[in-house]
């Protein structure tokens, strides 16, 4: 290459000094097939990170482009934003420690999660001997709407290409010249995020009939966004919820609320306050619904807060579960295992104890359900201890993140999962974004004395009723008229799924609200039911697999659905949104083992190091 000529001396220098390192990197990537070889790969990657952030990022931008993992501009965008964080992680940990194992699980799917680090969550008081009994008086239920994962794309451009090669389509990308093969329609498209008009239409549909709403997070598509657009996106949606809905909303923080996506540093990090601006914006935007005290908590407890809904005995506890999320690469910046990053567990305990002391019922509201494969097992286990301790106070848990219409059950004894040992239900709401499913939201009928859910109705697409959980599943499990749709009910539903494949396949179609329903064979069904019976991640029957964690949704078809649970599992890419893992996890498979190709890759890395050394 002619333009490299002036760099030739530098290139020779780089070959001389770093030649061994470049060899080591290429060899280690090729050999990365299991947990041990993944640890070994981290050694030369750490060496690369020590050459500096730009050497590290430039190398992976070049590799991403050369191996065609993404479009060149996408390679550049993602790695530039997020590469420095991974380089920082690698410089801060031992390649052979437990954090490295967790990183190898998260980013490459090459390690299984390590055994749970035993930790006993401290409680201010033991569980009461005679817990308060909440009894239904049979009064008329009130309505609560639950919507999630709105993923609004304010840059959605009608007429732009709706079938593109980027992580998100329907945008006017620089350099796209040819007329679109599939012009984006005004209201929305598959492969694209939510238009402003679709989001407003949903809010108007919800506004007609509800006491309050729950919004379980993910406002924008942040993967390629800068933070100025993110600020605007968060503020605009807060305003729209406020003006269109009228009634209060109890929101929570999603993994897409950070720029770069998923990057929420812990309080112990080198940049502990890098996400504070998000909490400050939401503290202001949510204050009208959660009062001064709640708003102050949002700013001081990393986005978490609690508020009693006026005129009720119900405390809503909204917590930020992004500190338990495997794709948050700030969680791998130290070898020290922290049981409770940013005190989210302690906050939850404090608020639940207050509810118990006051004789209130509580709802947990959060973005990421704690039972999926993308949750760190330690924190999921500790959170489960809290659920066990306060099971009498918690009347429901509400999540989003999966983009699927789901539920998951917690048990007092996971070795004996039954209707008798079922203690709590996670209601995992469908997404608004049309990317993976038909847009949908739920309306719950809530008993005003117990705050338990009597029915859950899903509305989809043009906001017509899709189905009622009580009407659909009740007859299969013999539900009594006064019985709430509680943990025992949902366990019986999973038993009905196991024996009645028609009922299970109907649930399988509900997952995506009827869009692009994927076949789920016997093995897939077993795994899916296991996922429904696991609000604790260590029990979801999932196994980490190379390159699988970050595969795009839909690619699982290649496996014939055999080893893949539908909905229950939660591979990281489901929700990770164009993060670094979507590039890194592909490298070992893409790097051909032929000597000629390896030589080419060697050259690519050497050139990128020479450019970095030249400060380019
Ligand atoms: C999108 O484009 C790809 C490649 O050009 C093509 O194979 C596919 O059928 C298109 N999808 C739709 C929905 O048109
Ligand atoms: C609206 O609320 C009433 C009671 O307040 C309830 O009976 C009715 O089912 C609700 N309708 C919808 C569509 O949620
Ligand atoms: C199986 O489930 C289907 C769909 O819900 C239902 O119509 C049917 O009656 C069920 N069969 C039995 C034997 O319960």
UniProtKB/TrEMBL annotation:
SUPFAM superfamilies: Metallo-dependent phosphatases
GO MF, one example: metal ion binding
UniProt xrefs under InterPro entries: ASMase/PPN1_MPP, Calcineurin-like_PHP, Metallo-depent_PP-like, Sphingomy_PDE
Domain Calcineurin-like phosphoesterase residues, every copy: 143-404
GO cellular component: extracellular space; membrane
Binding positions for Zn(2+) 1 per the UniProt entry: 149, 151, 218, 403
Function of the protein: Converts sphingomyelin to ceramide.
Protein name, UniProt field: Sphingomyelin phosphodiesterase
Species in which this protein is naturally found: Tricholomella constricta
């Amino acid at each position: 290459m002619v333009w490299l000529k002036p760099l030739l001396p530098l290139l020779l220098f780089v070959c001389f000094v770093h030649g061994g390192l470049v060899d080591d990197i290429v060899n280690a990537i090729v050999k990365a097939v299991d947990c041990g070889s993944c640890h070994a790969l981290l050694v030369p990657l750490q060496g690369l990170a020590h050459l500096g952030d730009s050497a590290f990022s430039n190398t992976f931008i070049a590799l991403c482009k050369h191996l065609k993992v993404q479009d060149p501009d996408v390679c550049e965008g993602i790695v530039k934003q997020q590469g420095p964080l991974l380089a920082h992680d690698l410089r801060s940990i031992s390649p052979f420690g437990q954090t490295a194992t967790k990183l190898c699980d998260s980013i490459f799917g090459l390690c299984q999660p390590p055994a749970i680090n035993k930790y006993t969550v401290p409680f201010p008081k033991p569980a009461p001997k005679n817990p308060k009994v909440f009894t239904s008086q049979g009064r008329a239920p009130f309505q609560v709407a639950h919507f999630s994962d709105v993923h609004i794309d304010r840059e959605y451009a009608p007429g732009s290409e709706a079938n593109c090669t980027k992580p998100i389509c329907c945008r006017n990308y620089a350099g796209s010249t040819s007329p679109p093969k599939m012009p984006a329609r005004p209201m929305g498209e598959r492969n694209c995020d939510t238009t402003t008009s679709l989001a407003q239409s949903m809010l108007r549909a919800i506004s007609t009939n509800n006491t309050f709403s729950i919004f379980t997070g993910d406002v924008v598509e942040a993967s390629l966004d800068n933070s100025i657009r993110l600020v605007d996106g968060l503020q605009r949606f807060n305003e729209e919820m406020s003006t269109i809905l009228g009634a209060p909303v109890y929101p929570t923080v999603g993994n897409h609320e950070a720029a770069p996506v998923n990057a929420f540093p812990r309080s112990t990090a080198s940049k502990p306050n890098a996400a504070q601006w998000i909490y400050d914006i939401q503290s202001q935007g949510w204050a009208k619904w959660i009062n001064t005290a709640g708003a102050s908590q949002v700013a001081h407890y990393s986005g978490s807060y609690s508020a009693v809904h006026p005129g009720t005995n119900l405390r809503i506890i909204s917590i930020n579960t992004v500190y338990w999320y495997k794709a948050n690469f700030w969680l791998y910046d130290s070898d020290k295992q922290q049981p409770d990053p940013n005190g989210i567990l302690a906050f939850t305990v404090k608020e639940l104890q207050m509810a118990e002391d006051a004789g209130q019922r509580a709802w947990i509201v959060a973005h990421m359900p704690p039972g999926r494969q993308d949750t760190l097992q330690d924190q999921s286990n500790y959170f489960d201890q809290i659920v066990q301790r306060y099971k009498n106070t918690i009347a429901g848990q509400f999540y989003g993140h999966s983009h699927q219409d789901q539920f998951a059950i917690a048990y007092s004894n996971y070795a004996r999962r039954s209707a008798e040992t079922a203690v709590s239900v996670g209601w995992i709401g469908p997404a608004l974004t049309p990317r993976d499913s038909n847009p949908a939201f739920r309306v719950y009928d809530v008993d005003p004395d117990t705050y338990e859910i009597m029915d859950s109705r899903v509305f989809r697409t043009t906001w017509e009723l899709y189905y009622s959980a009580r009407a659909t599943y009740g007859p299969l499990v013999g539900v009594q008229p006064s019985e709430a749709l509680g943990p025992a009910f949902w366990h019986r539903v999973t038993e009905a799924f196991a024996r009645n494949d028609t009922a299970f396949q109907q649930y399988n179609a509900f997952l995506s609200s009827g869009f692009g329903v994927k076949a789920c064979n016997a093995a897939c069904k077993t795994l899916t039911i296991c996922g429904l019976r696991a609000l604790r991640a260590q029990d979801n029957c999932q196994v980490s697999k190379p390159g699988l964690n970050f595969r795009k949704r839909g690619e699982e078809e290649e496996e014939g659905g055999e080893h893949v649970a539908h909905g229950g599992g939660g591979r990281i890419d489901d929700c990770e949104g164009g993060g670094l893992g979507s590039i890194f996890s592909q490298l070992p498979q893409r790097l051909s083992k032929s000597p000629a190709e390896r030589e080419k890759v060697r050259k690519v890395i050497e050139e990128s190091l020479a450019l970095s050394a030249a400060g380019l």
